Amino acid sequence: MNKIVPHLWFDKEAKEAAEFYTKIFDDSKIRSSAIVPGTPSGDAEIIDFEILGLRCQATSAGPYFKFNPSISFMVSLGTKEEIDSIWASLAEGGQVLMPLEEYPFSKWYGWVKDRYGLTWQLILVEGDIPDQSIKPCLLFSNGVCGLAKEAIEHYSNIFKDSSIELISKYGEGEALVKDAKVNFAAFKLEGVEFVAMDNAMEADFTFDEAFSLIVMCKDQNEIDYYWDKLSAVPEAEQCGWIKDRYGLSWQIVPESIDEVFYKGSKEEIKRITDVFLKMKKFDLEELERARRGE
Fold first, then answer.
1. CB 190 within 8 Å of CB 162
2. Are the C-beta atoms of 70 and 22 separated by less than 8 Å?
3. CA dihedral sign, ordered 261, 60, 191, 216
């Protein structure tokens, strides 16, 4: 199981979106679903699913956040035909951000916003397709433009099984934003592959809670460690959620909470939910007591 899991926040469309994504991509499936009762936005639905073998989660939890291009999925594919087919599905009811065509860095590439607002970069790869063909892509814009390299190094120092595979920089005059430095970077955190870049264009968006990263923690020591290393915005600390120094949202949660949500009784789920909604950082011992009804 991946230690870092991409999480998508929807208003009411989490299940519909997950079913849509798992139909258009190979090696994709719905793993499980659950209802979390009594949240501030009412009963929230959680969907656990895989896209191209990458585990993800989605939640229907109200109209509080909207996707933007600051985080997208970059998908590497081996044929134009595959890209064209997937592109047609994603573009229907969506918006083209960069047309599907040849670019200096790829013979077939495009960037599209789907009907739910999530953005996707589809890129033709010549030769072997990487084992992880779908990667979260971080686009550092606005106040954090120019900090991609620093952020990658920061994350790599925090997470185990991490490596920086590539950092490529803009040439002189390539970026319209003077602070932009990195035009493409590839790195791994806990074995999960990511890509990142500084935005070469002026933008009115940055990271928000619509697309966050869950860190699955095995015990309280891990919860404490990642919380202390990543949290940089005290007012954002709520129900396991934090924001780091770059504005990226993380959820620091115990692995065991999945077992409760997806396999527990309605009573167990309600007891745990009632307790964690009052927490900032999760207290694993208190959650276990709630699960047992103590």
1. yes
2. no
3. negative
Mean pLDDT of 268-290: 93
pLDDT at 39 exceeding the cut of 90: no
Round the CA-based radius of gyration of the chain to a whole number and report it.
19
Region(s) of the chain under CATH 3.30.720.110: 71-198
CATH architecture of structural domain 4-66+208-292: Roll (3.10)
Task: Return the bridge partners of 49, or none.
Answer: 30, 56
> Which percentage of the chain shows pLDDT scores above 70?
100
Give the torsion sign (CA, 63, 69, 72, 77): positive
Residues with Cβ < 8 Å from 285, sequence gap 6 or more? 220
Beta bridge partners of 47: 33, 58
Q: How far is CA 204 from the centre of its chain?
A: 20
Q: Which listed CATH number (3.30.720.110, 3.40.50.720, 3.40.190.290, 3.40.630.30) goes with 71-198?
A: 3.30.720.110
Interval 53-111: pLDDT, tens: 999 999 999 999 999 999 999 999 999 999 999 999 999 999 999 999 999 999 999 99
Quickly tell me which residue has 């970059």 as its tokens: 74
Predicted TM-score (pTM) of this structure? 0.96
Q: What is the structure's pLDDT at 70?
A: 99
